[in-house]
Design brief:
Its EC number is 2.4.2.19. By secondary structure, the chain is α/β, with parallel strands linked by helices. The protein has 11 helices and 12 strands. It is elongated and about 70 Å long.
Length: about 290
């Protein structure tokens, strides 16, 4: 399988998010746990168990949730990030104060289940084209507030992260083209203003637009919602005229179509499906 590197965001960035989600869940206090337990809660052990098969993602983040509640909590990942699990597998073992385990349980599990679900579906897409040169790429269609983690999970599943935000690269889309009157006008205006080393990608829907993107030396040409026959012709056209240009296919990519798209010879295939259509991977915490 083609390699992808999933870089865990630093806790300097994540802690503020995790703390806000803990505060949302705990509110003015955990009425149940705090009513049952003294402030000096006993030390207990728990296990996380998978209830369905999938790809694990988010365990270091889950560990941090518990440690923000009590820095002495010991969270041991039995499965590594990106590892496959089966129903009934122990995913992690935890030891710490009972109040911290119970107060952090839901936030930690929710994050790990969401991220593991993304990694699981992403991996299915990636495996469909694992023997072909094309790389699978995610998009900016993410949950507000969760983008940095959802894209991390996508990379754990084997995808390549597309731009994280609008400042990462220039992507000239149909509305930009309509606003200024054409691809040439858009590229010319933008190229005079952007800093090095930002690249320019152009979304195209026809062979005429592909020719214009080539004429004005776009770095990446996206073939958006093109029929396979037109996409194949566009790839050949780009390869013949400028071999340095990278080619991305996008639009209506599914598990049924991704392999045929990859066989046209594109460099990248982008889809929001693993993030927008994935189901959570069911995990549960059981006290020992």
């Amino acid at each position: 399988m083609k390699s992808s590197v999933a870089v865990l965001p630093p806790f300097l960035v994540l802690d503020q998010l995790l703390q806000s989600w803990l505060m949302e869940d705990i509110g003015r206090g955990d009425r149940t746990t705090q009513s049952l337990l003294s402030q000096n809660s006993t030390i207990r052990q728990a296990r996380w168990v998978a209830k369905a098969p999938g790809i694990i993602a988010g365990l270091p983040i889950a560990a941090r949730v518990f440690q923000l509640l009590n820095h002495q909590v010991r969270f041991v990942a039995v499965k590594s990030e990106g590892a496959r699990c089966e129903a009934g597998d122990v995913v992690a073992e935890i030891q710490g104060s009972l109040d911290a385990l119970l107060m952090g349980e839901r936030v930690a599990l929710n994050l790990a289940m969401r991220l593991s679900g993304i990694a699981t579906l992403t991996n299915i897409y990636v495996e469909k084209i694992a023997d072909l040169p094309a790389m699978f790429v995610d998009t900016r269609k993410t949950t507000p507030g969760l983008r940095i983690l959802e894209k991390y999970a996508s990379a754990v599943g084997g995808a390549i992260n597309h731009r994280m935000g609008l400042d990462d690269a220039v992507m000239i889309k149909d509305n930009h083209i309509a606003a200024v009157g054409g691809i040439g006008e858009a590229i010319t205006s933008i190229r005079s203003q952007i800093p090095y080393p930002l690249t320019i990608e152009v979304e195209t829907e026809s062979l005429e637009q592909v020719q214009e993107a080539l004429k004005y030396q776009a770095d990446i040409i996206m073939l958006d919602n093109m029929p396979l026959t037109m996409m194949t012709e566009a790839v050949q056209l780009i390869r013949e005229q400028d071999s340095r240009v990278k080619i991305e296919a996008s639009g209506n990519v599914s598990l049924e179509t991704i392999r045929a798209v990859a066989e046209t010879g594109v460099d990248y295939i982008s889809s929001s499906a693993p993030i927008t259509q994935s189901r959570w991977l069911d995990l549960s915490m059981k006290m020992i």
